[in-house]
Amino acid sequence: xxxxxxxxxxxxxxxxxxxxxxxxxxxxxxxxxxxxxxxxxxxxxxxxxxxxxxxxxxxxxxxxxxxxxxxxxxxxxxxxxxxxxxxxxxxxxxxxxxxxxxxxxxxxxxxxxxxxxxxxxxxxxxxxxxxxxxxxxxxxxxxxxxxxxxxxxxxxxxxxxxxxxxxxxxxxxxxxxxxxxxxxxxxxxxxxxxxxxxxxxxxxxxxxx
Length: 209
What we know:
Layout: E1 21-23, E2 26-28, E3 37-43, E4 47-56, E5 60-67, E6 73-81, E7 95-103, E8 105-111, E9 124-131, E10 137-140, E11 156-158, H1 167-172, E12 179-184, E13 186-190
Parallel strand pairs: 8-12
Antiparallel strand pairs: 1-2, 3-4, 3-10, 4-5, 5-8, 6-7, 6-9, 9-10, 9-11, 12-13
């Protein structure tokens, strides 16, 4: 019956506030049980260059950046840790890589095992800087400044969320594109079209310190 609650048999949709609802004889998914964490990347204080979306499954923290401007990423510096960011010097970030061509989207994932297998109560601290081919940079807009703050960066934190099947991950990831995968502090690329849980044997040139 229309306008009554139903079950779309997806554990990742339907909350108490916005449950799955019957509409037009079909069960329409409700709100995501695990909402996507969203941050903008900016130049200066207010010029938005793109959007970073963060989610997880039982093995990986996924970070998907999409350009919302003419900015194209050529080099990426990612900080993801169970400890707060101490310095915004991007050359000290654990995950750094060069893209083969300027990109308007970048997909990354960090092993939850590398992060210490955090629970839903544990913060995961994040910072992101991207540079274009000319060397101009954009930072993720965070809420906090590190103790050593000399490069204009900031950081925020999120936490994991679990639901059976993790359907929300598949709705965000594009497995036909490269995924920069970090099972540890060195980058690999998942081959196109293969959403494997195992790191690829294809190693990209890196600038990891």
